[in-house]
Predict the 3D structure of the following.
Amino acid sequence: MLHDFDFLTAVLRLVLAMAAGGAVGYGRSKKERAAGLRTYMLISIGAAMTVLLALYEYEMLMGSWAEITNEVGNKFDVSRMVGQAITGIGFLGAGIIIKIAHQQVKGLTTATGLFATVCMGIAAGAGFYEVVIISLILIVLVLNVMSPLEGAFKRRLRNITLHVEFNSVEDLSAITGTMQQLHAQIFDIDIERTEWKDDKPPCATFILKLSKENHSHSGMLSSLAELNCVHSVQELIA
């Protein structure tokens, strides 16, 4: 009965899409992300509406509009409107992704979260309730539970990216020397500022691979922070 297409099931699917989108957006809103509670709810409702409109048009073409359809020879593909919805969220997601300082990109998780929410809304609009519930659990799990675990995992890796502020570019030799003393392999150095500007000291981003013997991220940070020429050192975690 719940899989039939009528007014009550349409309302149920819209409410389910709104609730599922809200459940995902609640956690993002608490983290003060670009897309919060209402954004996720509207995205999910809009996706469900896309499927419901497609189903409604199909029902009308097969029913009330059948005679006109036969005369005109109109062909209809329900999946086309769904495809347009997914394409549209691609543009929205691209607008959320931005490049911030120190070679970091922000908004990837929000954009992909919106994409997954659109697909979840499409499933709700199609009446695929089982997939909505399972995908809701998995999306919330990934966005809220996996975030601290991902950070802890990345800190255990030997690859590390550091942003260091120092007195002058002449201090780079002392900084790289300290890294090499800890047997770290330097892959890349990107100097962002070569001199003081607006009370901001010179700075650079270092991409390293720590040795097996000295693979502690905090140890590398502490060693660099102890240098007199270093103003600040920060580990960048994407």
Summary: The beta strands are 98-100, 104-106, 159-166, 185-193, 203-209, 230-235.
